[in-house]
Design a protein that fits this description.
Layout (H helix, E strand, L loop, with lengths): L2 H34 L5 H5 L5 H29 L2 H33 L3 H10 L5 H17 L9 H4 L3 H6 L21 H6 L11 H39 L2
Membrane topology: Multi-pass membrane protein
Family: Belongs to the tetraspanin (TM4SF) family.
Subcellular location: Membrane
Length: about 250
């Protein structure tokens, strides 16, 4: 191959590696954001063991930083114009590529299981809210936080607590039809109308369900880990393709 064409391939590979390194670093940062769980919804998925979105985020933390470091090495390998370093680069990138594929696919498929409909989230809420176990305390704290911050009640509506059997119903019977967190609050966070909320007065309690909010948050997590991960994979695939062509043209 002509020296000019080979140099063009080299600079293209250097440029793609620079872009892939930046994309990998961004993936690393985004995956940390998901793993930290700023919305504090992990207990809702973790209580049943269906926490693959967060497991995928931890994989993406590794792959994102690994892409960053390997792409920097790839720039060195391309400039060196040597088969040995370039072959090592190709092997490392391919291994990381496979790990990131697993991360993106895991997050995407698990999201559909968690928020395909409200039944799964509702079941966990009814089963664990008010329970004295560690998991029950985590679920109770999470739901209390969501219901107060988002001003919602139950998964679909307050009727969830009445229609279905729940731990809360077993503990309190007719004394509390729904959690106190379903009651509207004053600016001091005291319950606005305890008596009205207890009997289901619409002006005294939150009437919308919390599931749309939970679905939105978990979808954001999924978009961050899976769909951004897929976009990084497409860039890396193009980089690997150019790197293989460059490798085969080296003398």
């Amino acid at each position: 191959m002509a020296a000019g064409t080979l140099s063009c391939l080299m600079f293209t590979l250097v440029g793609l590696n620079a872009l892939a390194a930046a994309a990998g670093l961004a993936l690393f940062a985004v995956a940390i954001w998901v793993a930290v769980d700023g919305y504090k919804l992990y207990p809702i998925s973790g209580v049943s063991g269906k926490d693959d979105i967060f497991a995928a985020a931890w994989i993406a933390i590794f792959t994102g930083f690994a892409f960053f470091l390997t792409c920097l090495y790839g720039i060195f390998a391309a400039l060196k114009r040597s088969h040995g370093p370039l072959l090592l680069y190709l092997i490392l990138m391919f291994i990381i590529f496979l790990f990131e594929c697993a991360s993106a696919i895991t997050a995407a498929t698990n999201r559909d299981y968690l928020v395909g409909n409200s039944n799964f989230v509702k079941k966990q809420m009814l089963m664990h809210y008010g329970d004295s176990s560690t998991q029950g305390q985590q679920i109770t704290q999470t739901w209390n936080s969501v219901m107060q911050q988002v001003e919602c009640c139950g998964a679909d509506s307050p009727q969830d607590w009445i229609i279905y059997n729940s731990t809360l119903k077993q503990l309190y019977g007719q004394q509390y039809l729904w959690p106190q967190s379903c009651c509207k609050r004053q600016s001091t966070f005291d319950v606005l109308d305890p008596a009205g909320c207890k009997v289901g007065k619409i002006s005294s309690m939150y009437t919308k369900g919390c599931f749309p909010y939970i679905e939105s948050v978990l979808s954001r997590y999924t978009w961050a880990v899976s769909w951004y991960g897929f976009s990084v994979l497409m860039l890396v695939f193009l980089t690997l393709l150019i790197a293989m062509i460059y490798y085969m043209q080296l003398e």
